[in-house]
Amino acid sequence: MIYLVTNQKSLFETNKHFSFATVAEVIEYFEDHSHVAFDTETTGFDPYLCQLLSAQFGDSKNQYVVDCSTVDICLFKKLLESKIIIMQNAKFDLKFLYRKKIVPINIYDTMLAERVLSTGIYNHRKALDYLVYRYCKKEMDKTIRGNIHKEGLSSAVIVYAANDVKYLHDIMRKQMIKIKEQDLYVALFLDNEYVKVLAYIEFSGFKLDISKWQLKMEEDNNNLLETRKDLDDWILNSNMEEFIKKDSQLDMFNPNANDPICGILWSSSKQVVKLFKKLGLNTEVKDDKTGKMRDSVDAKIVRPQINKSPELLEKYLKYKGYDKIVSTYGESFIRQINPETNKIHTQYTQIMNTGRLSCGGKNKITKEEYVNLQNIPRDDRTRSCFIASEGNVLIVADYSGQEQIVLANQSQDKDIINFYKKGLGDMHSFVASKIFPELADLDLKEIKSKHSEKRQVAKGAGFAINYGGTGYTIAENLSISIEQGDKVYEAYFDAFPGLKDHFKKVKAKTLKNGYILFNNFTKRKCYIDSFDEFKAKRKVTQENGFWVKYNKEKAIKSNEYIQELGPLVRKVFSWKGLLERNALNYPIQGTSADITKMAGVFMFRYLIEKDLLFKVFMPNVVHDEILLDCPKEIAETLAEALKASMEEAGKVFCKTVELTAVPVITDYWTH
DNA sequence: ATCTGTAGCGCC
DNA sequence: AAAGGGCGCTACAGAT
After folding, report:
1. Which of A98, A175, A271, A341 is the residue whose CA sits 20 to 30 A from A506?
2. What pLDDT digit, counting tens, does each position of A17-50 carry?
């Protein structure tokens, strides 16, 4: 049954789809309920610029649609803050509730549950209509959605709105069966807790020093134009006619008509390739996806060859830098400043394949854009444009070596643990001492100062290996031979046998299970998409006599080899390689994400406990870094609380070597 | 004119 | 046999 809760009954009296209820009746109905399904309809996406049209409370039997234009949502504050609230995509509704100072404590988000259950599976839809069909076998009509803004609370909208809460209990019940089966209860609990924090982060917003940003934009733009002119001039002075064309403006009064102009569009890699080839650069790289050679003017390809045309290439690299800054980190940030708060309120996505957050995006319907606050250039010039609210300071805290320490704990490698426990100093020097016998007896400080090249090799090797790289990768990165790369690789694992053993186990377990298990606390998993297909393909290559046949056909380059066996083998091995690399990396990256989420949860609880919500803000979070925007007077206390929250969360996952977090109190975003 | 894929590069 | 993980944004190129 659908009930309407409104103070202008007369407007709706003719409608037969629903009855009426009072606020008291709604509250009374849910008195003996532990769970309340909740949803809102709004005039738009921005909680500062748009309003609540309706709020729906319900279960599978009854749905109450509250007309928010005549009934104050705050009358339901107690209900919302005391029950377990089931929502689909809670983050959206929470921001509108926060605006009313309503802060639900217990949340079950059906969308997050579905994300947790299907992490890693592509094309798994999580929109409500899909969930309703998947779990309740009911078709939902979403066509009216686009009209809500125009129609307001029409009868059709009321029925539609009621439907949005009708199935949530049922979906939750059925999801929970799977959650238990797949042992994902803690992962889901963490994400249900964290959605409150993430909504608060989006709600908080990040203040941008507009005039400083604009000044920076102007400088960058001037630099870009100047550099481009230099590049053009270089071409014009070079006599390379194929790159020079005539100004084609068909304007007889244009005095510049028919003047020679540069024919290269510098932001077109395709066009630049032609020039660089002429200048004798080697632009060939192996394509990661296809394995075939292709041309590239990637900075890391060009930089080592800068001596082939120093003047031009130096300018070109500069140009690329300015081009990136101007296009990606310019005007769009100004556009997204909210007129109500004067801050940037972007959007985050809560559960990626590794359990990390992502940030940014664009609403395809409304065309609203959201900037990515997780890849802001880290130089002071840029970051100092991000500031605290009026009268406040920022607290910036990040974990020291978060992923490294997570790996140390997960692998339980004795040497790595010993290194951290004893606080021996520089990790890369330590690795260098392990993989270069001649450095074994030296002091780590001496290695750092006197053997920086070997330290650099160690650094690159450790980094590559932790992400699943091999001797080949090390060789590529450090421009050494594959043999040397392999040597470093082997030396690394000889030095850390516990790590070698750990990686071996993790790979085997993943290929057996069909999912990557991140850690034993949340038990978060990334499922391997199309795992059955992979197994079937792999099985073919493991059958008796396959390799005999393969080698025979390969030797004569038969059609069968070229069209079937070759591609099959390549596919199986590249797929397996990818799975194994992911198996090594995801637990590190994903556990780190769990830790940072939990730290956010602890901090959020602290803010509620100390009645600091809406006084202390959380403007951003970047993987291993959490920011607060807080009144100066309490900054010291809050910095300690943030540090404590982060380290407490760390302890839950990292028991052997504990994580430390370092807070900095500052006027602008810095390290 | 609008869409899609790719190259390149910013961050952790 | 392939060969470092995760993400999002922008401009260009090519297609429709």
Report:
1. A175
2. 789 999 999 999 999 999 999 999 999 999 999 9
Distance A332 CA to B10 C1' (A): 15
Q: Stated in angstroms, how far is A269 CA from C16 C1'? A: 24
A196, A97 contact by CB (below 8 A): no
Chain C positions with any atom < 7 A from a protein CB: 1-14
Q: Of all protein residues, which has its CA closest to the C1' atom of C12?
A: A268
Residue A13 has what pLDDT? 75
C-alpha–C-alpha distance, residues A166 and A141, integer Å:
13
DSSP string, A40-54: EEESSS-TTT--EEE
Residue A479 is predicted with a pLDDT of 78
Closest CA to A592 of A524, A531, A670: A524
Cβ density class A505-531: b for 16+ within 10 Å, e for less: ebbeebbeebbbbbbebbebbbbbeeb
Cα–Cα dist A480/A467, whole Å: 19
Beta bridge partners of A41: A54
pLDDT at residue number A460: 85
Q: Report CA(A531)–C1'(C3) in Å, whole number.
A: 22
CB neighbour list of residue A312: distance below 8 Å, 6 or more residues apart? A231, A234, A279
Instruction: For residue A201, count CB atoms less than 10 angstroms from its CB and return exposed for 0-12, middle for 13-18, buried for 19 or more.
Output: buried
**Protein CA at A469 to nucleotide C1' at B9, angstroms:** 21
Is the CB atom of residue A360 positioned under 7 angstroms from any atom of strand C?
A: yes
Q: Rounded to an integer, what distance in angstroms lies between the CA atom of residue A115 and that of residue A125?
A: 9
Q: Is the CB of A168 under 7 A from strand C?
A: no
Residue numbers of chain A with a pLDDT score lower than 50:
none
pLDDT of A248: 59
Vertex A115 angle, CA A112 and A117, to 5°: 110
Distance (Å, rounded) from C-alpha A34 to C-alpha A193? 17
Q: Cβ distance A291 to A567 under 8 Å?
A: no
Tell me the C-alpha distance between A148 and A128, whole Å. Answer: 17
Residue nearest to nucleotide C9 (CA to C1'): A328
Nearest to A208 by CA among A433, A388, A402: A388
Instruction: Find the residue closest to C7 using CA and C1' atoms.
Output: A358
Amino acid, single-letter form, for residue A627: L
For the segment 559-578 of chain A, residues whose CB is within 7 A of strand C:
569-570, 573-574, 577-578
Q: Are A522 and A187 in contact (CB under 8 A)?
A: yes
A547 touches strand C (CB under 7 A): no
In angstroms, the CA of A238 and the C1' of C15 are apart by 35
Report pLDDT for A253.
59
- In tens, the pLDDT along A139-197 reads 988 777 767 777 778 888 898 899 999 999 999 999 999 999 999 999 999 999 999 99
> Would you call A612 helix, strand, or coil by DSSP?
coil
Task: Calculate the angstrom distance between C1' of C9 and CA of A296.
Answer: 20
Measured CA A146 to C1' B1 distance, in angstroms? 25
| A171 CA – B7 C1', rounded, Å | 42
DSSP, collapsed to helix, strand or coil, labels residue A626 as: strand
**What Rg, from alpha-carbon coordinates, does chain A have?**
29
